[in-house]
Every structure is written in C-alpha cells, then in structure tokens.
C-alpha cells in the first residue's frame, strides 16, 4: 500500500470539502482504496489528506493529475491557500 500524503492550508473547509467530494469518481477511477482527511488540533485552516493506492505508480499518476489538472484551475480547487506539500509514502514495516 502506498499513500499519497497531501498537506495544505485552506481558507474555508465547507468550500474545500465540496470540491473534494466533487472528485470522488476521479479518485475511485485512479485507484484510491481509502482516504483520510485530518487537521492539526487547533488549526481549522490546514489539512492533511491521505489517499491509499495499491501501487506507487497509481499514487504518482494521481499526484500528476492534481498538479497538472486540479491545482492549476481555481474553479476546481477553491479555498486552497498557498502551495500544497505532496509526497508518496511507502510502507517500511
């Protein structure tokens, strides 16, 4: 299992969540097997999203989709503030 870890600041959670939910089918087609949305305690304007994939290639492909399609379009990514920090995580134990 490989995890695409995404961290970024947001301006408004309900707006962000509406856009996130709108891409549920894209995530499913990309091979996302499970997902988690978290935020630091006391900081409602920062999110950590974890998307799990079977393969590293699927995670990398979805990262490219986010970088090239979603985050370059303000209409597709409302409520984002600043640059996202994105990494593919691999299991070690």
CATH top-level class: Alpha Beta
Number of strands: 4
Structural class: alpha+beta
Rg: 13 Å
Number of helices: 3
Which series of helices and strands comes N to C? EHHEEHE
CATH architecture classification: 2-Layer Sandwich
Enumerate the strands of the largest sheet in spatial order, edge to edge or round the barrel: 2-3-1-4
* Percent range for β-strand residues: 25-35%
Mean pLDDT comes to: 94
> Are there runs of 5+ residues with pLDDT below 50, and where?
none
Biggest beta-sheet profile: 4 strands, antiparallel
Termini distance? 11 Å
The percentage helix is 25-40%
CATH fold-level assignment: Alpha-Beta Plaits
Whole-number total of structural domains: 1
- State the shape: globular
Characterization of this structure:
With 93 residues, this protein is of the alpha+beta class. It has one domain: Alpha-Beta Plaits, CATH 3.30.70.100. Helix content is 34%, strand content 34%. The chain has 3 helices and 4 strands; from the N terminus they run βααββαβ. The protein has helices at residues 13-22, 24-30, 56-70, and strands at 2-10, 34-38, 46-53, 80-89. The protein has a 4-stranded antiparallel β-sheet with strand order 2-3-1-4, with helices on one face. Strand 2 and strand 3 form a beta hairpin. The radius of gyration is 13 Å and the shape is globular. The model has no long low-confidence stretch (mean pLDDT 94).
């Amino acid at each position: 299992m490989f995890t695409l870890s995404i961290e970024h600041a947001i301006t408004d959670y309900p707006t962000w969540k509406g856009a996130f939910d709108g891409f549920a089918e894209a995530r499913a087609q990309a091979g996302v097997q499970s997902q988690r949305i978290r935020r630091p305690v006391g900081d409602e304007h920062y999110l950590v999203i974890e998307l799990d994939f079977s393969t590293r290639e699927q995670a990398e492909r979805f990262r490219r989709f986010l970088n090239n399609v979603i985050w370059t379009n303000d209409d597709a990514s409302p409520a984002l503030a600043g640059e996202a920090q994105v990494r593919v995580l691999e299991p070690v134990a």
